[in-house]
Task: structure prediction
Amino acid sequence: MSLDTSTVRNIANLARIEVRDEELEHLAGELSGILTFVEQLQELNTEGVPPMTSVAAMTLPQRADVVTDGGYQDKVLANAPETDEGFFLVPKVVE
Amino acid sequence: MTKLTHLTIAEARDGLAKGAFTAVELASAHVDAMARARGLNAYITETPELALEQAKQSDLRIQAGTGGALEGIPLAIKDLFCTEGVRTTAASHILDGFTPPYESTVSGKLKAAGAVCLGKTNLDEFAMGSSNLTSYHGAVVNPWQRTGSDAKLVPGGSSGGSAAAVAGRIALGATGTDTGGSIRQPAALCGIVGIKPTYGRCSRWGIVAFASSLDQAGPMTRTVRDAAIMLESMCGHDAKDSTSAPMPVPNFEAALTGDIRGLKVGIPKEYRPDGMSDEINAVWDQGIEWLKAAGATPVEISLPHTKYALPTYYIIAPAEASSNLARYDGVRFGLRVPGKTLDELYAKTRAAGFGAEVRRRILIGTYVLSAGYYDAYYDKARRVRTLIARDFENAFKTVDVILTPTAPSPAFAPGEKGDDPVAMYLEDVFTVPTSLAGLPGLSLPAGLNAQGLPLGLQLIGRPFDEATVLRVAEVMEQAADFKALPSGLEG
Result:
């Protein structure tokens, strides 16, 4: 699969990573190389083979649906670039 | 007396118990050595004050007879483990200024066992790489050099700082993490022992996530016995990680009986790809001879889907990474680049914060999970992963352990693999299948090549049978008698 620059721009937008126009072509080449490499898998017949959803042969544990953690707002906010009155601060999202 | 920094963990433990030296003396020797060896760039953050304070406490506990299994042992922690109050970077710009308010389960267990923390070791950014060249904090230098050359070589990756620190005698042992070979390949390139345990053995809680269905922590040490000692303190069930196995922790050191008579050792024929170097083939054959001499029986086996492991990995790991790394948004922690809108803030922060390899993997992962491509790539890879796991299940019906080379080449110089990302991916060709199947894999140094560089062999075991892997490894270690020291060693 060869990716064109507009597809790369679209993926980058989905991933929320700004990519400069002059980088697009080189990046498209690199990503196409990786995709070509992984496409070897298409030559395998996987009809009837279940997808692996858990590498460990165990069922997910369950616990009572109760609060077991929390109560340390200061710790949660300690590493935030910008906070205000106990909240994370972001640019205005509602016009 | 052996220099304190050259002791094994087992020797240091015994010396501390006998009072031959104190934990403070042991920590001081390492703090000094660490400062002299800064040229290796093995540590991103050194914590000498913390180490000396912890050592002081260890001495008190040793005197009181209340010391833990690793009391007073100076260790390095890969900078992917969150450490309470100590900066944690994952070798990425995007975690700038992040100081975890909590401790990862594994590093917490080591602390509780009495280990002394020397600092946080360098790695490939977010553990994505096989050379340590992708670290935001600069490349790590392998203490090993080619005979007659002072060219700098890479230590492998992603746990390259940990491997260089242990080989360079600036830590008695170190934690690593392994997603597709990140403990075993650097262990091989630096001439040390590294084990990735079975998926679920060590809690992933508090380890910066790369690919959650593959990530596992493990020890990196200079001997198999040391790996057994450290692993025992690192693993165990943790309710905070839903994939942590609720299983008892065996006494791994007691498993080192030296007796492997009658064991069947699988030799997979698919691990001799065309063009593999003669020196790798030779060291593998040598390993088979050692096992025979110890009374084990080599059995040729087939793992037919081996060649599909790397392409499978390079769909699954980036897919999981693209999801895991969505959390780096410039809002809750780390780097923030301002934007006029929230979306612009995200995109600018992530553009500035992620390096080239991490960006590539996020984009590949985003693509293979996107509408219209999910079935062709991601779902296909998950099905092939089932086939790869079945290959091992079938093999383990007839053999007890599998022996392969760890890496296709010894340590290389930066740039020698060119700038094609896929060429670097091939470094993990022998380690990735084990990771996809969730099995334990260990690398041990088997000898030196003609240029004086270490070569590693890998032992792969049944799920949760690290004990057999360690037992066989110790027998091979005795036979290999690997005593060479890296030429780039300081003081």
About this structure: Residues 21-38 of chain A form the longest helix (18 residues).
